[in-house]
Every structure is written in structure tokens, then in C-alpha cells.
Design goal:
The complex is a heterodimer of chains A (68) and B (252). Chain A is mostly beta strands and 68 residues long. Chain A has one helix at 8-11; strands at 2-4, 21-26, 29-35, 41-46, 64-65. In chain A, strands 2-3-4-5 form a four-stranded antiparallel sheet, with no helix packed on it. In chain B, the strands form two sheets. In chain B, strands 2-1-3-4-5-8 form a six-stranded parallel sheet. Classes of the chains: A mainly beta (68), B alpha/beta (252).
Chain lengths: 68, 252
Amino acid sequence: MLYTVMPMELVLANNQEVLSVEEVQLDGVLMLVELSERGTRKIVRLVSTDPQVYLDPRFTPGTLVPSG
Amino acid sequence: MSTNLSTPYPGPGPEKKSLDQPKTKKIRADKRVEAIKEFGETQVPTVKSNIHCLTIIGQIEGHLIMPPQNKTTKYEHVIPQLVALEQNPEVEGLIVVLNTVGGDVEAGLALAEMLASMSKPTISLVLGGGHSIGVPIAVAADHAIIAETATMTIHPLRLTGLVVSVPQTYEYLDKMQDRVIRFVTYHSRVTEEKFREMMFRTGELARDIGTVLVGKDAVEVGLMDEVGGLQEAMRKIKELIDERKGTPRGVH
């Protein structure tokens, strides 16, 4: 349930995209990355149980990761 | 090869070539062993702050992924961050900066409860906006500061999508709303009566019922503790840290 001041038509405007995610390991950290059409991979979120990796700015959601 | 000396976190950066004195070399060697033991890496963080800063912005994303035009706070990332901060002995205090339009109720309450149950001193600083579910998050901190121009909108929860018009729907909505009201009244000086009155006030919002509180209005009703900005936040967090340590203020 959304509890927000933003009007719903604005929030839910471009809602057709479905993320194609894959699980990769980078530097020993397991994470979900999203593959875009252009081939770039972007971190969606971390799947690690070590809390310290969540403080590492290299693994912030939204960061692009090198492919391969 | 240059190294960014202000990087606060360890990372696989290039090894720094230097003309170290032997004494500095020994200190760096000790720190390196410590770094290996603690982080599993050899790069020594050169600047470490005992006060960490967490930002909560945009929509608080919960069970559904928001379409891309929304800026979001991923609560599943923030929660382990809070765990890390609670665990890490070097971190003594946390400032949470808010500029949010609200978002998922359960994710927001999850963040609020995590923040409220931290043992270390926490300060929330509402800049810009702390609307809707941002209100519980803001009051969850030990001390809540709001900027003079920041606003907090208090309004009822709304059901979106298919609404089944039976009495149970209303009761469900009421229960959801009660969760939020209970949390806010428990963690701030506002009374339940006053909070409900603000929630259902007519005439203030263009598309809804509710109240817009600007800066000191939020302090006057008892929701926030202080009007201020960065320096008030820094001053207060240091005060809370010193209190926790039992150090008299001004003496180190």
C-alpha cells in the first residue's frame, strides 16, 4: 500500500517494464544486476548477509558494473 | 599513480608509493594487519568518521518495484546498512537525512522500527519534505530536526486499485492507519487526538484532506524536536554521543 503525497498517475506512469535480473558475484559479493538493452548492467540490490558490504559505496544499487 | 586519500572505505585501489619515515611505516603496517583482520583487505581507510549519514529520498520502495521515473530508497538495502552501523564499533552516531514523498507503508514502518530500535544515538534531519510515511521515520530517531522550509504532510492512508466496498475494507484501512498513528504518537510529543485532527482536517490540501506542517509548525505540534539544519544536527549528535559515553561536554 502506498502512503504518499505523489499522485498515483505520476508514480505508476511507465509501469510496463519488467526487470530482467540475473544473479552475479562481484568481488565475492552476491548481487542482482539488471541487464538493459544496451548491454549495460546495473546493480538492483545486494543479496549478502554481511552487513558491512552494504556500506561499501561500490555496491550501491544503481551502480553500473562492468560486463564479463 | 595517484590515490584518492579521502576515500573513507577500503577498496582494491592502487598501492600508494611514498617516502615514509620508518615510524609511519610501522603504524601503517599495524593498521594493515588490523584492516586484514577486520575487513579482509589490505587497503587502510584513511579517513573514518564516527558519525555516519544515511539519506532517505524519493519514494520508499517496498514490495513493488517502482517505475523508473521515480527516485527511490530501497529499504532492503537500508536495513542491512543499519545492521552494519549498529554492529560496527567505530560508528558512534547516525544522522538520517530525509527528503521523501512517502511510499510503501510496510517498508516505511520497517525502516522506522529499525531506526527506533538502534542502541546508538540517532538524529533525523528533514530537509525539503518528510511526507506521509516519512513522518514515522523522522520521529523514530532520538532527536528529530526539521529545516525551516521543510514540510511534512499529515494525511490519511488511501486504498488504491480495486476497492471492495464492504465494512471490512474500512476496518482494514483503520487498522493500517492505527499502526502509523500509534508509532508516531509513541515516538513524539504529539497526542493521538491532535494527530488524528491534523490527518482529517479539511481545507488545506488541494487533492486530499490533511495538514501541511512547515518547519516550526511541526515543532509546535510536538511532532519534531527542533527547527534547524546541519550545525544543529552535528551539535546534537555530538552531545548525545558524549552523554552516552559519560563524558562531560566540552571535555575530551
